[in-house]
């Protein structure tokens, strides 16, 4: 990014040499504990508070630290000697490889006191394809909360494809095309190259590079690994030059005798990007406007880039070849109909801002495509000086004017959560609206807190209205109005608790939406001031004709079927069904074409269907060869009907099964047969709010006995332990108490055993004795703080990462509480379920289908699929893979992965047996008999025993239907 500065650093760097030592003042636990609690530690300031404490001095000194001169290094908590690389990939000198379990410290001296910006030269070594994350400590302290997680991006590029001039003289790429004529999205590959970066706030609330204040004398900087390994070449402290305002920069250019160019138009098709910061970003197929180039009413063309995926802190880079030195204007053909406010981008040319205004280019909200010329407020186009030759153009996501607003909103929502929790500790979640709770007496600080939140909200609303207009302030205005009413009369809380919670949650959702800054880009133009390209607006009749053609072709082209790259008559072809979105299916098809078909010579037709039609299609002889992502009950259910292939009949099955967790396989096995291979596996985890538990002075519970004690503490504060009465929760309690669903041969239910009955009593007791809410969403209440500890599926982690920025850094997750067994050991067993891939028995290509299933469920393919899907659809789409190797390579933080690894080792599948669908259905009925009408006095044992009779009857009926033994 900073080519001009790199030459300065190489010429004037001040080098420090130290003999590495391995004695440390702080062990690794200190650093990780600090990171784990940074957001609830009031001694660690926010970045704005931190920088405001010191004199605003920014010295010109340059301090360079060679990575080879590290002071100490640990790996997994033990002193170690890191691997050195010499002259690695063109980088002269010695570099240090730091693992994702490492802590590396450097010492350096400062001659002049002031603020300095750390700059890292690094190389992203091959890993799990996620961004590199580190925490940065100065003198063994986090300078500010924002230093707890900083990111070093990887660099990506589309798989190299030749470019050509088309019939219109436009440079396009020769995308791979399927046999239906549709462009295929390219595989995005990582570019392994040296990069340099300042440290930035990963949330984007701080737009400039992060700086630290250094006094004169010796200091240390410590990098604590959170995710991924990386090579470090050097760390440099210096202050970057601020770009000049346009008028000033233009005057400098003019004084140097620079002039306008004439007659040139450089057109860059945006889908022809050379690099990007994430696999998320890839060419898109937009057919909303025939003006998007190239377009076709019949075929799907790769003709744009960005969209929802181009958000967060991501950037895209293009190469432009300029024919003459001189001034150029710049315009872009864009679509920004994703959110009703401007999306902001920073524009760099050759790693530098041309002038200050390019640090904040806003793209307005508008339905449809439009042209935006880079211009000043008077619509005068900016003149940008470019020398003849190749240049790189980078567009980087930014929050622009929203940065400070969103930072304030994060604090406001957090404060509102604290207010809400303090109130419900007195009123409860469902207060009596006719009761006077005397809140002002019980909470004398309440009015001051409400007033402070209202004042902050007023500031946000004023700033927001000047940026985007009134259409974006309704949610915040509603919250502000309610705060005004509560300031006047705090007792209104008893009547408005629910609406306060809804408004507070809406504010958090609003922040999440604004954090996203999507933009879709069709074309970039660099042109001489006298040669502006003409971008016409699509006339209504042209759009109508285009849509009419699309409608016509829709009767003849099956867009639910994804075409093949090659389909030769001699190639064996299998059909695979999946019930997913087209984007997901397209990614699957791309992986199949690039990997499976090329390696095995077998074509795969991928068809999008409603998987509920699988049974009917199979019975009618119209089913596929393979179905993936099928529900856990399907393999066994179809298997006993001889509708799916018994995979254990393949001779190499024993080489395939070890790639999965044993608990993932169990649900697809029955009576010695294997009817499907696991794809996904999910299980519950315990999520907890660090901030609230810290306030209460308690720790996350280790056992269910601890849970009961914790629920007493929560009850005193009008909070609850969150646990929905799901099958996975009941099964977890059942397994931890030594129970099971069925007898060994599954001829009868085992839920009438003593262990099972005791487990059911325990399960019901949480909802009768401790009054855990059975119906409210535990996930929503976790976010508001009503349920500081919840047990839910571990995939909730992905949702929190994306949709709950207001509680970022104040929650964690751990294995579920354990049951203390009679011998004193802790049983942490959890129930697991998942989806499967199956081969239909009607298939005429069973061997080819088996080759596909082996490839599809392999470590490499599942890892590739998981990473690709997450890159396209974001963190919520992270695959809960059942493959051991792929599970290890997903983009988890190190500490989170360790918690998951510990829990999955104890997972136990819910067995699938004939008639098994009756089991939890009747357990659930018994549960509500016990918990809904407590006064009726129906005991847990009585309710469950009655339902076991029904379960046994159904199992007997099904076994009789299939000619199976009725006794063991």
Quick description:
The chain is an alpha+beta fold and 968 residues long.
Termini separation? 72 Å
Count of separate DSSP helical elements: 27
How much of the polypeptide forms β-strand, as a percent range?
Answer: 15-25%
Structural class category: alpha+beta
Helix content: 25-40%
Per DSSP E runs of 2 or more residues, the count of β-strands stands at 45
Biggest sheet statistics:
7 strands, antiparallel
Q: Low-confidence runs (pLDDT<50, min 5 residues)?
A: 1-24
Shape from CA axes? globular
Oligomer: single chain
* Integer average pLDDT: 88
Task: Give the radius of gyration.
Answer: 31 Å
Description:
Helix content is 33%, strand content 23%. The chain is of the alpha+beta class. Strands 1, 4, 5, 7, 14, 15 and 17 form a seven-stranded antiparallel sheet that branches. Helix 5 runs antiparallel to helix 9. It is globular and about 95 Å long. The model is unreliable at 1-24 (pLDDT under 50).
Structural features:
968 residues; 33% helix; disordered N terminus; alpha+beta; seven-stranded antiparallel beta sheet; single chain
Q: What layout of secondary structure does this protein have?
A:
Blueprint: H1 3-12, H2 28-36, H3 47-52, E1 63-66, E2 72-75, E3 78-79, E4 83-86, E5 94-98, E6 102-110, E7 114-123, E8 132-138, E9 150-152, E10 156-158, E11 163-165, E12 171-173, E13 188-190, E14 194-198, E15 212-214, E16 217-227, E17 230-238, H4 246-255, E18 265-269, E19 275-276, E20 283-284, E21 304-307, E22 315-322, E23 326-336, E24 343-349, E25 361-363, E26 366-373, E27 384-386, E28 389-398, H5 402-427, H6 439-442, H7 446-468, H8 474-488, H9 493-515, E29 519-527, H10 540-554, E30 561-562, E31 572-578, H11 582-600, E32 602-608, H12 614-619, E33 626-630, H13 634-639, H14 653-656, H15 662-666, E34 669-670, E35 673-674, E36 677-678, E37 684-689, H16 690-696, H17 704-716, E38 721-723, H18 727-736, H19 754-768, H20 778-784, E39 789-793, H21 796-803, E40 811-814, E41 819-820, E42 826-827, E43 830-832, E44 836-839, H22 846-856, H23 859-873, H24 884-888, H25 894-904, E45 907-909, H26 917-932, H27 940-961
Parallel strand pairs: 31-32, 31-33, 38-39, 43-45
Antiparallel strand pairs: 1-17, 2-3, 2-6, 4-5, 5-17, 6-16, 7-14, 7-15, 7-17, 8-9, 8-16, 10-13, 11-12, 18-29, 19-22, 20-21, 21-29, 22-28, 23-26, 23-27, 23-29, 24-25, 24-28, 30-32, 33-44, 34-35, 36-44, 37-39, 37-40, 41-42
């Amino acid at each position: 990014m900073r080519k001009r500065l790199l030459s300065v650093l190489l010429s004037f760097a001040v080098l420090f040499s130290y003999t590495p030592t391995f004695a440390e003042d702080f062990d690794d636990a200190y650093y990780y504990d600090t990171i784990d609690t940074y957001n609830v530690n009031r001694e660690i300031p926010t970045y704005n508070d931190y920088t405001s404490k010191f004199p605003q001095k920014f010295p010109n000194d340059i301090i360079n630290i060679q990575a080879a001169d590290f002071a100490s290094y640990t790996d997994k908590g033990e002193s170690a000697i890191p691997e050195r690389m010499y002259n690695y990939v063109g980088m002269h000198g010695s570099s240090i490889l730091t693992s994702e379990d490492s802590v590396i410290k450097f010492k350096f001296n400062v001659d002049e006191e002031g603020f300095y910006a750390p700059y890292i030269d690094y190389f992203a070594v091959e890993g799990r394809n996620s961004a590199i994350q580190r925490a940065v400590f100065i003198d063994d302290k986090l300078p500010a909360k924002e230093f707890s997680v900083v990111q070093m991006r990887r660099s990506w590029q589309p798989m190299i494809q030749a470019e050509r001039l088309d019939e219109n003289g436009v440079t396009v790429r020769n995308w791979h095309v399927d046999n239906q004529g549709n462009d295929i999205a390219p595989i995005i590959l990582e570019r392994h190259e040296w990069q340099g970066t300042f440290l930035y706030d990963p949330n984007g609330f701080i737009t400039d590079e992060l700086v630290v204040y250094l006094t004169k004398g010796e200091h240390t900087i410590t990098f604590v690994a959170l995710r991924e390994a990386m090579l470090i070449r050097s760390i440099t402290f210096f202050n970057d030059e601020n770009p000049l305002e346009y008028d000033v920069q233009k005057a400098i250019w003019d004084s140097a005798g620079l002039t306008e160019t004439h007659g040139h138009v450089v057109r860059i098709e945006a889908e022809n990007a050379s690099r990007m910061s994430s696999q998320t970003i890839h060419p898109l197929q937009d057919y909303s406007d025939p003006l998007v180039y190239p377009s076709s009413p019949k075929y799907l063309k790769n003709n744009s880039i960005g969209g929802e995926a181009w958000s967060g802190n991501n950037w895209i880079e293009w190469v432009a070849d300029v024919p003459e030195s001189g001034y150029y204007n710049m315009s872009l053909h864009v679509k920004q109909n994703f959110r009703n406010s401007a999306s902001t981008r920073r524009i760099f040319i050759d790693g530098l801002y041309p002038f200050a205004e390019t640090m904040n280019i806003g793209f307005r909200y508008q339905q449809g495509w439009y042209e935006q010329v880079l211009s000043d407020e008077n619509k005068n186009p900016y003149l940008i000086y470019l020398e003849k030759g190749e240049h790189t153009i980078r567009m980087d996501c930014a929050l622009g004017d929203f940065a400070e607003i969103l930072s304030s909103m994060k604090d406001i929502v957090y404060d509102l959560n604290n207010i809400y929790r303090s109130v419900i500790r007195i009123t409860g979640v469902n207060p009596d609206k006719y009761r006077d709770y005397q809140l002002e007496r019980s909470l004398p600080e309440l009015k001051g807190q409400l007033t402070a939140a209202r004042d902050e909200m007023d500031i946000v609303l004023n700033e927001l209205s000047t940026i985007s207009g009134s259409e974006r302030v309704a949610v915040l205005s509603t919250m502000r109005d309610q705060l005004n009413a509560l300031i006047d009369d705090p007792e209104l809380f008893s009547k408005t608790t629910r609406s306060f919670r809804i408004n507070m949650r809406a504010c958090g959702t609003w922040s999440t939406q604004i954090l996203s800054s999507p933009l879709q880009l069709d074309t970039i133009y660099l042109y001489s001031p006298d040669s502006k390209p003409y971008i016409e607006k699509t006339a209504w009749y042209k759009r109508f004709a285009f849509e009419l053609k699309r409608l016509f072709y829709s009767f003849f082209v099956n867009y639910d079927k994804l075409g093949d790259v090659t389909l030769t008559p001699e190639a064996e072809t299998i059909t695979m069904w999946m019930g997913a979105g087209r984007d997901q299916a397209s990614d699957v098809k791309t992986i199949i074409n690039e990997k499976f078909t090329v390696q095995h010579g077998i074509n795969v037709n991928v068809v999008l269907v409603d998987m509920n039609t699988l049974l009917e299609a199979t019975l009618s002889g119209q089913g596929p060869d393979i179905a993936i992502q099928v529900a856990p009950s399907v393999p066994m259910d179809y298997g006993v009907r001889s509708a799916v292939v018994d995979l254990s009949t393949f001779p190499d099955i024993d080489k395939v099964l070890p790639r999965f967790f044993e608990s993932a396989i169990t649900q697809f096995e029955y009576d010695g047969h294997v009817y499907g291979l696991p794809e996904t596996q999910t299980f519950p985890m315990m999520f907890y709010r660090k901030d609230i538990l810290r306030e209460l002075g308690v720790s996350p519970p280790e056992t269910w006995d601890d849970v009961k004690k914790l629920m007493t503490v929560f009850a005193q504060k009008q909070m609850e332990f969150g646990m929905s009465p799901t099958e996975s929760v009941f099964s977890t309690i059942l397994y931890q108490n030594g129970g099971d669903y069925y007898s060994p041969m599954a001829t009868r239910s085992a839920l009438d055993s003593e262990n099972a009955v005791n487990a059911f009593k325990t399960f019901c007791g949480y909802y009768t004795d401790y009054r855990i809410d059975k119906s409210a969403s535990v996930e929503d209440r976790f976010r508001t703080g009503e349920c500081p500890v919840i047990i839910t599926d571990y995939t909730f982690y992905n949702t929190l990462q994306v949709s709950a920025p207001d509680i970022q850094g104040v929650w964690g997750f751990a294995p579920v509480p354990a049951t203390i067994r009679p011998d004193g050991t802790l049983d942490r067993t959890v129930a697991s379920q998942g989806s499967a891939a199956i081969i239909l028995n009607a298939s005429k290509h069973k061997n080819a289908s088996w080759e596909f299933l082996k490839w599809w469920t392999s470590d490499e393919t599942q890892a590739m699929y998981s990473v690709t899907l997450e890159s396209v659809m974001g963190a919520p789409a992270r695959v809960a893979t059942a493959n051991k190797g792929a599970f290890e390579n997903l983009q988890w933080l190190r500490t989170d992965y360790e918690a998951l690894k510990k829990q999955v080792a104890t997972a136990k599948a819910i067995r699938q047996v004939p008639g098994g669908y009756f089991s939890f259905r009747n357990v659930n009925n018994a549960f509500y008999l016990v918990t809904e009408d407590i006064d009726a006095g129906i005991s847990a044992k009585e309710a469950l025993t009655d339902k076991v009779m029904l379960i046994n009857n159904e199992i007997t009926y099904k076994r009789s239907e299939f000619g199976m033994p009725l006794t063991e």
